[in-house]
Design goal:
- With 326 residues, the protein is mainly β.
- Helices cover 12% and strands 47% of the residues.
- It has 2 domains: 179 residues, Immunoglobulin-like; 111 residues, Immunoglobulin-like, CATH 2.60.40.
- The strands form 4 sheets. Strands 1, 2, 3, 4, 5, 6, 7, 8, 9, 10 and 11 form an 11-stranded mixed beta sheet that branches.
Length: 326
């Protein structure tokens, strides 16, 4: 459904007992550097390595707005990829602590949602930056078969999406959309045999990684390897680390530390009962040395086993010695 600006304004402005509704369609825009954005700007998933959640959460945000008292957003997406779940005004919205009047969300058209809100009479206009609303979209099963992508964008710019100041004038703003993607990545899968482990470390990348090239540092509790390519290339990197090889205490995901050429990076990290996986992108300003640090690493665990064996042997020897004395 295409909702024009005038009808929804009539609803809000009549409720607010504002006068001279008719002229608003031609009201001059208030000067503004405001940015109205759908955040995050990108939800990117890679079907062979990362899995999207069932529901995507977006914040509709305003930056550097002055004296806003009412807003309306119209947002659209590809309904074969994403479907509407919910849209609401969170408690920490820009008018937090004040009474507001809302209209919508209207999702009569499965590809569009229209939602609006305004301060109740006597409310104080908002100046600054903050959250306007939250939007939830469901990922369809079709979207799990890549390639799949959909722009989440402000629909009907200048008609369905607008901001009003305390005088009822339009506040001009820059609109920033979002993009959902779920695609396959192509590259090489490389395995690295680990002494003492029945399972290898597995890496995958569109850069070059040599098989069996991992280096284990038992003191630093790290596994490292080199990714090579052309200067300036952006390469993706996936690692699968068996927990029998390297792990962190209590499965605390925040204890993992990943660096590229000594600088901290923050890839996506997922864990299950047996493995830890990392996924991220690297810009090759030079050949990249990737290092993953945990709390425990296999040679260290093997050494502990040797110590236990020695201790057990010593216990048996002492017992036999006492037996002979008798």
């Amino acid at each position: 459904m295409k909702m024009e600006k005038q009808p929804i304004l009539l609803l809000i402005l009549a409720t607010l007992s504002l006068m001279l509704i008719a002229p608003f369609a031609g009201t001059a825009h208030a000067q503004s550097t405001a940015v109205l954005a759908i955040s995050p700007s990108s939800y990117a998933y890679y079907a062979n390595y990362t899995t999207p959640p069932t529901t995507l959460m977006f914040n509709i945000t305003l930056t550097d707005v002055t004296n806003i008292t009412a807003w309306q957003v119209g947002i659209q997406w590809d309904p074969t990829i994403l479907t509407f779940n919910d849209m609401s005004v969170p408690t920490n919205n820009i008018f937090a602590g004040q009474s507001i009047l809302t209209a919508g969300p209207d999702n009569t058209n499965p590809a569009i949602v229209v939602f609006s809100a305004a301060l109740a009479p006597g409310g104080a206009p908002f100046t600054g930056s903050g959250i306007v609303a939250q939007l939830e979209l469901n990922v369809t099963q079709a979207a799990l078969v890549p390639p799949a992508s959909s722009t989440i964008e402000f629909e009907g710019i200048g008609i369905d999406t607008f901001l009003l100041d305390k005088d009822g004038a339009d506040i001009s703003s820059t609109k920033t959309d979002s993009l959902y993607t779920n695609v396959y990545l192509t590259g090489d899968i490389v395995t690295h045999a680990i002494a003492g482990s029945s399972r290898p470390v597995t890496t995958a990348s569109n850069g070059t990684i040599l098989p069996n090239s991992t280096v284990i540092d038992t003191v630093g509790k790290t596994i490292s390897f080199n990714v090579t390519g052309n200067m300036g290339d952006i390469v993706w990197l996936y690692t699968d680390l068996p927990k029998l090889v390297i792990n962190v205490t209590n499965g605390d995901i925040t204890r993992w530390n990943v660096t590229v050429n000594g600088a901290n990076v923050f890839p996506d990290i997922t864990q299950n009962a047996t493995d830890t996986s990392t996924f991220g992108f690297i810009t090759l300003t030079e050949n990249a040395t990737v290092e993953v640090e945990g709390d425990n690493i296999i040679p260290e665990l093997s050494s502990m086993l040797i110590i236990l064996i020695i201790a057990s042997s010593a216990t048996v020897a002492i017992a036999k010695s006492k037996s002979r004395r008798k």
